[in-house]
Amino acid sequence: xxxxxxxxxxxxxxxxxxxxxxxxxxxxLAADGARVALLGRRKDRLEELAAEIGERALPVxxxxxxxxxxxxxxxxxxxxxxxxxxVIANAGVMLGAPFEHALTGEWDRIVGTNVNGLLYTGMxxxxxxxxxxxxxxxxxxxxxxxxxxxxxxxxxxxxxxxKAAVAHLTRTLRAEFGPRGIRVRTVEPGFVGTExxxxxSDPQQREMLAGWRSGFEILxxxxxxxxxxxxxxxxxxxxxxEVVVVPTPQG
Length: 251
Prior knowledge:
The protein is α/β, with parallel strands linked by helices. The protein is built from 7 helices and 7 strands, in the order βαβαβαβαβαβααβ.
């Protein structure tokens, strides 16, 4: 359920917006009145989503693992929509394999997207968020983490390590920017039906992941989008700082 126009006037930036949680979040925030910048690598997907959403959406092809790409994206967003006051960093990669058989190139990709990409996203838009907060408006930096940052999943050591980094980075940034008016938070999903993990090269791990996801009723992207929308629509004085969202059977 949406609350029409509750986010009217807000400008949201969403990374990883070509699919899954962030595509659902873009739809939801636009329905709630925000203008949304859709950042991602797949131009065709971004344009398709922007056409679906309509005039409130701006597709911006971006590689979050490259700092300059994000700085260029930030400049485009400012020119087309204005300074952002709501940034959702979700672009992520999950590749699993037994540690001794893992490909170090895959590790580089996981860290480059899940950690560096999140850092570059924050840096590209932090001045906009600080300006919004200084003007007395809501300013949100939302990191999409994972229950993997707190739990143990064998054969996903590097992925879960990056999500643990996201959790602690967010807490530290919350202490740094909360006193300056920016609400920094993590939303940490459990099992969600998305494309995450589709690029796993190890066939055993792909089969195991499919088994986990088919073992009980899991969440859909809209469930996480609803959670994000709830947190950003809270009164400015309220920061819902850490949210873990799991399917009921996951416990």
